Structures are given as structure tokens and as C-alpha cells.
Amino acid sequence: MMRRMRGVTLTTVLTLTTGVLAAVTVAAPASAAPCGNSGILGSSLGGLFGSAFPGGFGSSGGLLGKSSDQQDLPSLGNGPTQTVRWVTGPRSPNRTDTRFGITGTDLGIGWDNGSGQTLMAFGDTFGDCNAPTQQWRHNVVLRTNDKDPSNGVDVPDGVAGDVRSGASVSAARPRFANEALPAVGVSGAEITTIPTAAIAIDGVQYMNIMSVRQWGAPGRWVTNYSIIATSRDNGQTWTTDPRTIRLNLPASVPGVEQIDDSNGKYQVNAYLRGRDGFVYQYGTPNGRFGAAFLCRFAPQDILDLTKYTYWDGKGWSPDTTKSEKVVTEPVGEMSVSWNDRLQRYVMLYGQETSGSLVLRTATAPQGPWSAPVTLLSSRQYSGVYAPYIYPTSGGDSRYLYFTASRWQDYNVMMLRTDLSQLALG
Q1: What is the pLDDT of residues 388-412, one digit of tens each?
Q2: Is the pLDDT of residue 67 over 80?
Q3: Is position 5 within any domain?
Q4: Domain with 101 in it
Q5: Rounded distance, CA 410 to CA 169, Å?
Q6: Are strands 373-376 and 204-215 parallel, antiparallel or unpaired?
Q7: CATH code: domain of residue 228
């Protein structure tokens, strides 16, 4: 359990932390998008991102080129995993560049909103390459009614004030998806806020985000904290809840005890609806080289960290420090879901050391998890990361649909894996 701090509340610590971040002078990026420059590593970037920016996204170290350089998706041969369609970008049927001001983005974390739609959360997003800041948004949310991903995902137009339209937009800019949550935007303080997991409970949307302090080498970054944001209008607007903060930096406030280091295990997260009524949260440290840990809670307690319990290797403990790994490192961004065809839980994640996307299965959320099975290798298609299981399958359980991002194109695609072709133990 998170240690109680002497004489202050967690809200106070969050206020102080964000106050320090807000005090930093924000310099707009001169160029930071997949536009007609040398990529986001270009010298015009100055000190905003630093020279190792790709460590926050893909593992291939590639550069972003012009927006028109997004490539057609290739056929991957006769293997079990195939590309379906781009979800975002100029080459997507959604034409997110002209309809939502999204030329490049990543992640695409999909979840069932509980009322017939799928919501999708994206990370750092760029639009008009000629705009002064290239329309950088730290995160955006799109909505779809499409329940059949076999031919991709169709996103309807955004309509101002319509919380079930394709995106949150304003009347003044109906073709520009609004940022969901802000960030200071300065390396060394808070460079961005990125979604890592989302779930709907009783009509409320919950999104777990990480506050990124600085990018490092490929696959490595440092976070300030993770925190849960809530939306009561179907992802139209979001508010962070300070009770859910998990600090990952020293709390240098007089009279305040340092936050438990075990919170660092839950900086990048994934939610799972267990068949036993609990919600399970898988967590990894910042970056893509840590192990995966596990906690659980009753759905109504999602905003009360004191009600969470942690897998200690034998059972469930209220003590955060007892949290033991359930999957050995390295584990990148992950997603977990129950699969009716396999009658098992399925976990997808990126394996940074091999540049591959892998799948594991288990009969219980805590495992034991099977050995990883490769779904997509870097030799087949390089620079692909962050596989997120799509919440609908179009009625054909033979296929597992998931989104993933590719660094070179800096956009999100839909893929599918034929489960009947996998050798699962």
C-alpha cells in the first residue's frame, strides 16, 4: 500500500508537482512532426525534445519524413499475422489529416465505452506541417461505431458539441481533433502526457496516463508519475484525479515522506476485466525494458488506491511493496483481454530486444503465462510497436484484431492474427 505522508495529502503533492512544472517557461517547437523537414530529430528542434526523442516512441531509430511519405501497408506473406488497413494518417481511409488535423500519431488504445462505441486514445499527435507548432497535441481521442475491424475502422466526422461524434471538436475548428489532456511541453520538466490504458465503468471513461519528464535512448524514458483521468461525457473532456497519482520522482517537499518506490512499477499500464468481477491492472516501469506487475480492485474502487491489492507471488496483498513480477522483462506497451476461442487470457506486448510483437496466454490473470509466441518480427516489418487488442472482432473469433504503430510512418494500423495458425501450448 502507498505509504501515508506526514502532514499533507496526496493532492498537496500533486499540486506542488504540477506547480513546479507549470512554472517552467514553455517554448513552442519549431518543428516536431512528420513533415517536410529532416524528421523530429532535426536541428531546428532545439532543446525541446533533445537528441534522443525516438526513445519515447519506436525502437528502430528511424526518422519521420514528409507527411506524404506514409507508405501503403505491405502484405506479410503467409504467416498468421496480416496487416488490414491504416487507422490514421493521409493513407488511411479515415483521412485523419484533412478530417481531424492528424498527420501523424501513435498508440490507438481501443476500449468499449459501455454504450455501443469504441473509443481510441492516441499519443503525441501532429497536424499541419506549415503551422508554427505543427499543431502538436499531447494526446487525442477518436470514437467509432464500427464493430467489424476486418476491413479497418471507420471514424465518423467530428461534430461540435456531439459527444458521440468521431472526435471532440469546436464549432470554430470542426476538422481539428481537440487535445484531451494538456502538458507543459518542456523536456526535463514535463515533455508530454501519454495515455497507456483505458476502461469504461458504469458509463464513466477512465484513462491511465503517464507524465513523461524526458526521453532517453531508444525504448527508454523517465516519467514524473502516472495518474487516472476521468470523462463523464464519453471522452469529450477529461479531468485528472489527484487521488490516483503514482509519483515516480523524489517528493522534495519539507515534511513529506518520499513516495514508495514500488509505484514506479505502475507507470505504463494495461486494464483487464477479469471473469471474476475484478478489474486487473498490469504495470511496467517507464520504458520498455522492465517486467510486468499486477494489482486488482473492485470496479467501483478504481479511484481509491487504498483499496487495490497486489499479487505477491502467492496471493493478494494490500502492500504495494509486495508486488511481484508476473511476466519477466523486457515488456513494452501491453494489452490483455479474455479470448473466448482460446478460453484463456491473452496478452500482447512489444519485445524491445528483438523488435517483435509477442503473445502469451494464461488461464488466470496472474498466470503462469505461457512462453511468448511471435506475432510479427522486425524482419517482416520493422519499427512496429505498442500492440493493443481491439475490443470487437466482427463476430469471427478465429482472428485476433489489434492496433499497432510504426515509427517510420508514425501512424496507427489495424492488424489481425489467425489464432488457428498459432502453436499455443
Answers
A1: 999 998 778 999 999 999 998 999 9
A2: no
A3: no
A4: 10-421
A5: 23
A6: unpaired
A7: 2.115.10.20
